[in-house]
């Protein structure tokens, strides 16, 4: 187990270094291509409630995805860390790009929804689609996250909530840059 954790840590470091070296123009063009592929998917077309995320530096730019979701009148939910030690996050509603631009920044420098009772939680809204970030993905739909477990924990809760309500689990789609796709 220690060897696996060390290998994951080394892979994360390597992939992040490669992404950090990518020119901004390449990140923007790849981000646009990924967004177009996402928009062509049936689960995007049919979704009315979408969880997404705000990009970190060196990641795929999610602004085109967020803009398209709002333009299509989809409800958008974004992550907010609730408890770092417990690796707990919520996905709460964002109302527009202007709303997101006004969000405070997290400890990681990511725009994060404020603690506001008027924002619905994605688990209560029963979202249709979750757009998932990752450090790396493989061709068998395997995902290597940042290592903290926030998404793994939240996705497990989302699946459990859907099962308890006897409704379909939300579809998940990982998005990333080409350098983050492993064989």
From TrEMBL:
Q: Which GO terms describe its biological process?
A: folic acid-containing compound biosynthetic process; tetrahydrofolate interconversion
The EC number(s) this enzyme carries: 6.3.3.2
User: Per its UniProt entry, what is the enzyme's top EC class, as one word?
Assistant: ligase
The keyword ATP-binding is annotated on this UniProt entry = yes
GO CC, any one term? mitochondrion
Query: Is ATP-binding set as a keyword in this record?
Result: yes
Q: Where does substrate bind?
A: 59
InterPro entries of this UniProt entry?
A: FTHF_cligase, FTHF_cligase-like_sf, NagB/RpiA_transferase-like
Please give the Gene Ontology molecular function terms for this protein.
5-formyltetrahydrofolate cyclo-ligase activity; ATP binding; metal ion binding
- Tell me its cofactors: Mg(2+)
Catalysed conversion reaction: (6S)-5-formyl-5,6,7,8-tetrahydrofolate + ATP = (6R)-5,10-methenyltetrahydrofolate + ADP + phosphate
Which sites bind ATP? 8-12, 143-151
One family from Pfam that matches here is 5-FTHF_cyc-lig
* SUPFAM superfamilies according to UniProt: NagB/RpiA/CoA transferase-like
Superkingdom, natural source: Eukaryota
Which keywords fit this entry according to its UniProt record? ATP-binding, Magnesium, Metal-binding, Nucleotide-binding
The family line of this record is: Belongs to the 5-formyltetrahydrofolate cyclo-ligase family.
Its recorded name reads 5-formyltetrahydrofolate cyclo-ligase
Give the species. Answer: Pelagomonas calceolata
From the broadest rank down, the organism's phylogenetic lineage runs: Eukaryota, Sar, Stramenopiles, Ochrophyta, Pelagophyceae
